[in-house]
Amino acid sequence: MKTLGILTLGQTPRHDIEQLFTTCMPGVATIIAGGLDNTGQDVIETLANEKSDYPLLVILADTTTRQIPMQHLVPLLEEAAYTLAKQGAEFVVLMCMGNFASRSSGVIAHCQPVSLRAAWYYYPQCRTKNTSTCCLGVEGI
What digits encode the pLDDT tens for the residues 125-139? Predict the structure, then answer.
């Protein structure tokens, strides 16, 4: 069975995103990770206090939010994406519409802006029960 990796900017758990993929892509195995999963709260607070021309809003495990400069998130997201691949993900969906192409040299450069439609085509078993409508409505996450 193919496995879909789901990468969020902040931290897991993200039950809202897990539920979304369970509903839109039934029968697809998923692994979810956050770019800040292995980052301590003190480091997150330091990053959040730094001024940036491209801050991204992230959701933390405790459901609070912070704005973290993109340049600090990119290497963390790349590491998390590679970890998802090592865990068996054959396709990684980055849950962000930011433009990572000019700020990344690795895997994230190939994920900008991601459409769930691409994942839907990659997993043909999900093409039943009108899941295309469900997934197409979520492109802006």
Answer: 555 444 443 333 333
Structure confidence at residue 50 (pLDDT): 95
Concatenated DSSP letters of 71-120: HHHHHHHHHHHHHHHHTT-SEEEE---S--GGG-SSGGGGSSSP-HHHHH
Residue 55 to residue 25: CA distance in whole angstroms:
31
Is residue 130 a part of any domain in this protein? Answer: yes
Tokens 């700020």 belong to 103
Domain that holds residue 115: 3-36+71-136
Residue 52 counted as domain residue:
no
Domain count, the chain: 1
Task: Report residues of the chain scoring pLDDT below 50.
Answer: 105, 109-116, 128-141
Asked whether residue 122 is domain-assigned, the answer is yes
